[in-house]
Specification:
The longest helix is centred in the last third of the chain and has 20 residues. The protein has a five-stranded parallel beta sheet, with helices on both faces. Helix 13 packs across helix 15. By secondary structure, the protein is an alpha/beta fold.
Length: about 350
């Protein structure tokens, strides 16, 4: 069976056109959760769920237990639903375990709907389990969106709920929240909760509703570094020192690596038109001018020095060659060295 899209699977589920096995995998958890919830909402009614819905977790199960559950007949319903969450934790290293799954996939129980919610990747397509899953199940791979595609997704999400958003507001929301759609959707829920259907989310709505602590995010730290705004960069670094859960050094360094890679590419593609440059560095055209300005603040030699610094401080944050320096001090050291 060919891999399907989120929209095509959703449409079939809403029409109650169900398949015996669904395999939902990939890097972007949002789409996996959304399809799982949709299946759960449409297969059984509330009365039927008491006897015919089973939700389990991969790390707690053997293939035999799953096969026994799938082999049960539904009670006072046409179907039973079995959902395996965190399916990536299933034990597939043992040949016997894999063989049991493969046998079931070749001949699934027609009255059972089995859902695998496999997050943070996909199975090895060279092995029997992965091959048979791609062949026999409704197979969906949930791919992470590039930064320059998230704004379009925001517009679609809002449109489905009868809302609109200003172009700049969508781009600003991406800049504040990043590309993890579960986080973006959570912020969108907050933005629309007090709005009437048909309303437009404005730049001020995003700045007020999402940006209450926007100056204390890794993304804002990057922007401050790019602008060489020392006062703001030091302020944010000190905030992370005082609130380490808000900006662990390993996470901050990872976002810096992404940011400075884009600045380096902005140097390489400096003769491109803004639209083409946005596509090349995978950002919204709305933010190209900021990246171009930041690139002018750091020449290529300085960027190469920064890459060495980020590698060094990533290792030190993980305890390598650190000599007991606290994470907060490492954070401040790194920011000072980048700016000087």
């Amino acid at each position: 069976m060919a891999a399907e899209t989120f929209d095509s699977i959703s449409a079939d589920i809403k029409k109650k056109k169900f398949s015996p096995v669904y395999f939902l995998c990939g890097e972007e958890a949002y789409f996996i959760d959304a399809l799982t919830d949709l299946i759960e909402a449409h297969v059984l009614n509330d009365m039927e769920k008491a006897f015919n819905q089973t939700i389990v977790y991969g790390k707690d199960l053997t293939a035999r237990q799953i096969m026994e559950t799938c082999g049960r007949l539904p009670m006072m319903a046409e179907k039973q639903l079995v959902i395996i969450k965190e399916a990536q934790a299933l034990n597939l290293k043992a040949a016997e375990e894999e063989e049991q799954f493969v046998r079931y996939l070749k001949n699934p129980v027609k009255s059972t709907i089995l859902v695998f919610a496999w997050k943070h990747g996909k199975p090895d397509g060279r092995k029997a389990f992965g091959k048979e899953m791609a062949k026999s199940a409704v197979y969906f791979e949930s791919k992470a969106l590039y930064e320059n595609n998230v704004a379009s997704w925001i517009k679609k999400w809002l449109s489905e709920r009868k809302f609109k958003i200003e172009e700049e507001a969508a781009d600003l929301l991406v800049d504040y929240t990043g590309t993890e759609l579960s986080k973006v959707a959570n912020e969108l829920e907050k933005l629309v909760i007090s709005k009437q259907a048909g309303a437009t989310i404005t730049l001020d709505d995003v700045a007020t509703g999402v940006g209450v602590s926007k100056e204390f995010t890794p993304f804002e730290l990057n922007n401050s570094l790019g602008a060489k705004n020392k006062t703001k960069a030091y302020q944010i670094a000190n905030y992370f020192v005082a609130n380490p859960k808000s900006g662990p050094l390993v996470m901050v360094v990872a976002t810096m690596q992404t940011y400075f890679n884009k600045l380096y590419l902005a140097h390489q593609y400096r003769n491109m038109m803004d639209k083409d440059l946005a596509a090349a560095i995978k950002v919204s055209p709305f933010f190209v001018k900021d990246y171009k300005a930041a690139a002018r603040n750091f020449n290529e030699q300085k960027l190469e020095q920064i890459f060495y610094l980020l590698e060094e401080y990533d290792l030190r944050a993980k305890g390598v060659n650190n000599q007991g320096v606290k994470e907060g001090e490492l954070m401040k050291e790194l920011v000072v060295k980048i700016l000087n």
